[in-house]
Amino acid sequence: MKDQLHNYLNRYVIFSEEEMNILFKLFEYRTFPKKEHLLVQDELCKYQFFITEGLVRSYYIDEKGDERITQFAIENWWVTNLDSYKNLSPSALFIQAIEKTTVLRISKENLELAFESIPKLERAFRIITENMLVAIQKRYEFYQKKSSKERYQQMIAALPDFSQRVPQYMIASYLEISPEYLSSLRKDI
Amino acid sequence: MKDQLHNYLNRYVIFSEEEMNILFKLFEYRTFPKKEHLLVQDELCKYQFFITEGLVRSYYIDEKGDERITQFAIENWWVTNLDSYKNLSPSALFIQAIEKTTVLRISKENLELAFESIPKLERAFRIITENMLVAIQKRYEFYQKKSSKERYQQMIAALPDFSQRVPQYMIASYLEISPEYLSSLRKDI
DNA sequence: GATTTTCATTAAGATATCTTAAGAAATACG
DNA sequence: CGTATTTCTTAAGATATCTTAATGAAAATC
Q: CB of B27 within 8 A of CB of B1?
């Protein structure tokens, strides 16, 4: 568990065992069974979650009462509602385990402590945040360029295991397609 | 010019005069007349641009040959193609001055030097990047939730000066609306 | 293993938005 | 100024995608 986090962070900046020991103490280990929420709407998002195992989604409920998935996250990804976390605003999003999920979570206070005691952690988080920004920009460029059908085809080609682990209507929601229309697209393929 | 950058960065982390002197030397000052490009497609984006005056857009050309605007940036904002900049990949985007624009630009090499000599700059950039991430997430949530008409109404309500400084067809492009349809929406309002 | 719940499919009708093409208005330019 | 370029509008027809509603299949639960 500690090694997993260590290996992950070492991709960006090398941390010593000792630094990792300090850092690791600031995290809490949690398990969420399938369907349990890591965060619910209107609550404050107090943590950043590093997923060590499992699969979660973040989503909101739109005006019509439908769920709209904004993100999936798996092993070795971070998930949080950054707006709520940073600005202490009530979360517009839910974060929910799709499978049994284990996480290391860190509170804002503890992450601030970590930044103070291990300054180069700032660098790691700066780079990770930049990568997330690039990823989200690419994603929306892709959505803008491609039709529903192409989005679906490329998603299952790029992430074939996802189609196994996630129900189809959730993939539809993530791709911004109605489940009925996705179903009819699949018939054509 | 130096003060403008200093004031801006002090929002995030306090820098001394001396630190600012070191940092400022690593930037270059540039002026771009209206319509000139800061970056063109297929080039490498070698800089991050801090806009000190003026207004730019970043956009790409889609399959049909139409321009699609992904971002506007004004005074005290950063603009770059982060994907190209970080990954040394040819830029899919253009960045162009809509008005006469002055910038402070910094190369990747110099920014790395700056991070090394002024480590707390990492913190400032980490926070700035987080803010950008929140902004882009909110933007796309808004696009997903709102109709074309609502997007336009809220944009001109939120940024009334923009409607003056930017031609309508560019606003349409940014809002992901065809210019003809935006024109017809305006008639209704 | 039967029952309930969740998930996927089908089909018909509705609609938001785009496309094309043309002309009008505004702005820039020699 | 007058011409050229850029920007905006109008209107008709096309289409991708959604909605609703019903049925069927699969999976979960007791």
A: no
Q: Does the beta-carbon distance from B137 to A62 stay under 8 Å?
A: no
In a domain, B176, yes or no: no
Say if CB A51 and CB A77 are below 8 A apart: yes
Q: Please check whether residue B110 lies inside any domain of the structure.
A: yes
* Cα A80 from Cα B165, distance rounded (Å): 36
Total of domains in chain B: 1
* DSSP result, B101-138: EEEEEEEHHHHHHHHHHSTHHHHHHHHHHHHHHHHHHH
SS3 of residue A54 by DSSP: coil
The residues with which B74 forms a beta bridge, in sequence order, are B55
Residue B70 in any domain: the answer is yes
Per residue in A79-137, pLDDT (tens digit) is 999 999 999 999 999 999 999 999 999 999 999 999 999 999 999 999 999 999 999 99
pLDDT digits (tens, 9 = 90+) for B46-56: 999 999 999 99
User: Which residues on A lie below 8 Å from B83 (Cβ)?
Assistant: 134, 137-138
**Residues of chain B contacting residue A129, judged by C-beta atoms under 8 Å apart:** 126, 129-130, 133
- Residue count of chain A: 189
Bases of chain D within 7 A of a CB of the protein:
6-12, 16-21
Handedness of CA B145, B98, B81, A13 (dihedral sign): negative
The residue of A45, A137, A175, A178 whose CB has the most chain B CBs within 10 angstroms, and thus the best one to mutate to test that interface, is A137
Residue B67 structure tokens: 């321009």
Domain span at B91: 2-120
Residue-wise pLDDT tens digits, A4-29? 999 999 999 999 999 999 999 999 99
- Please report, for the domain that includes residue B77, its CATH number: 2.60.120.10
Residue ranges near strand D (C-beta within 7 Å):
A 64, 147-149, 176-178, 180-181; B 167-169, 179-180, 182-184, 186-187
Specify if B113 maps to a domain. Answer: yes
